[in-house]
């Protein structure tokens, strides 16, 4: 009974992580940190190596299970999967019907996350400041250069999964945020909603490859160059706010009417160009709500650290 209770609690923690990963700006890694399972999660992911694969190929399932800490990993992944599938429809609906409010909420999440991640920079010296500036400039350039629509080919879906999973395991930076940057956030949500298995399996495969390829590198950078790494991440998030600005002018669309090229505009210009209400009051309220959510998560995290 005690094992079932532990598995259920891990499932709930996975559910919280998955819910966070659906929303750009809230990191599943942050939730894992708050829930007190981050270190075990990183150690478990690092245990999935060539030795574990060899055990699996030799059908030594029991040894493989213990090697990868299966009793911890399975309920956690089940909870994450439950959240992804259950929230995909809701987020897709909100993006379609309340885009300004939702993107404003996401904007607030990212602004507060920049503050949260920058607090992890222990030494603001010349190196960390340069890293912050470089991250900001590179991210802004990428968001300005990248079209609103990116390829829907499976190879790009695979690449998106490989990159996004690296962010999902970092406290403070969201995998969904990376998908927004890559122009694949809405597409992945729609695929989950429509149960497009070829897209889902390709994305999952990219996540697995990215996770196994980069988890050690990320762990090394965070331990060896923590201030420079976190400064780069915070700058990257700041520069990428360009992508999440709620009011955009559509310059060109594809044959399906999907925006291909856009540019950011002020709310007043948005009303003139689109003929739709800019809803600045609602946008401001949603932005503040996003900031408040990150602040609350950060306070809960501090309380957790003190209690432990």
SSE topology sketch:
Blueprint: H1 2-22, H2 28-34, H3 38-46, H4 50-57, H5 61-67, H6 70-97, H7 99-118, H8 126-145, H9 154-168, H10 175-181, H11 185-194, H12 197-224, H13 226-239, H14 241-244, E1 248-253, E2 259-264, H15 267-274, H16 280-307
Antiparallel strand pairs: 1-2
Q: In order across it, which strands form the biggest sheet?
A: 1-2
Dominant shape: globular
Beta strand count: 2
Structural class: mainly alpha
Q: Determine the number of helices (DSSP H or I, runs of at least 4 residues).
A: 16
Q: Could you report the average pLDDT, rounded to the nearest whole number? A: 81
Q: In percent, how helical is the residue content? A: over 70%
Portion of residues in beta strands equals under 5%
Tell me the distance between the termini.
25 Å
Largest sheet: 2 strands, antiparallel
Low-confidence stretches: none
- Tell me the radius of gyration: 20 Å
In total, how many domains does the architecture comprise?
Answer: 1
Q: Mind explaining what this structure looks like?
A:
With 308 residues, the chain is mainly alpha-helical. It has one domain. 76% of the residues lie in helices and 4% in strands. It contains 16 helices and two strands. It has helices spanning 2-22, 28-34, 38-46, 50-57, 61-67, 70-97, 99-118, 126-145, 154-168, 175-181, 185-194, 197-224, 226-239, 241-244, 267-274, 280-307; strands spanning 248-253, 259-264. It has a two-stranded antiparallel ribbon. Helix 2 (28-34) packs parallel to helix 16 (280-307) and helix 4 runs antiparallel to helix 5 (61-67). The model has no long low-confidence stretch (mean pLDDT 81).
């Amino acid at each position: 009974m005690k094992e079932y209770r532990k598995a259920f609690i891990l499932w709930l923690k996975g559910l919280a992580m998955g819910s966070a990963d659906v929303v750009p700006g809230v990191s599943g890694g942050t939730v894992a940190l708050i829930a007190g399972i981050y270190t075990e999660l990183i150690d478990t992911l690092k245990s999935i190596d060539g030795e574990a694969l060899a055990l699996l190929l030799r059908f030594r399932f029991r040894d493989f299970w213990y090697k990868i800490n299966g009793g911890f990993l399975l309920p956690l992944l089940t909870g994450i999967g439950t959240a992804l599938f259950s929230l995909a429809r809701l987020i897709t609906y909100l993006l379609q019907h309340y885009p300004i409010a939702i993107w404003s909420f996401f904007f607030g999440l990212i602004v507060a996350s920049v503050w949260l991640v920058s607090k992890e920079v222990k030494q603001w010296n010349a190196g960390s400041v340069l890293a912050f500036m470089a991250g900001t400039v590179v991210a802004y350039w990428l968001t300005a250069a990248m079209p609103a629509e990116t390829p829907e080919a499976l190879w790009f879906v695979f690449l998106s999964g490989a990159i996004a999973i690296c962010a999902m395991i970092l406290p403070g930076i969201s995998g969904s945020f990376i998908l927004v940057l890559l122009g694949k956030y809405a597409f992945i949500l729609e695929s989950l909603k429509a149960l497009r298995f070829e897209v889902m399996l390709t994305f999952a495969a990219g996540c697995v490859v990215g996770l196994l390829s980069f988890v050690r590198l990320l762990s090394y950078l965070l331990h060896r160059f923590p201030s420079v790494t976190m400064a780069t991440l915070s700058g990257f998030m700041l520069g990428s706010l360009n992508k999440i600005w709620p009011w955009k002018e559509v310059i060109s669309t594809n044959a399906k009417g999907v925006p291909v090229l856009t540019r950011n505009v002020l709310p007043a210009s948005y009303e003139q160009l689109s003929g739709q209400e800019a809803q600045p009051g609602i946008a401001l309220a949603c932005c503040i709500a996003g900031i408040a959510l990150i602040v609350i998560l950060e306070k809960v995290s501090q309380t957790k650290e003190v209690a432990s």
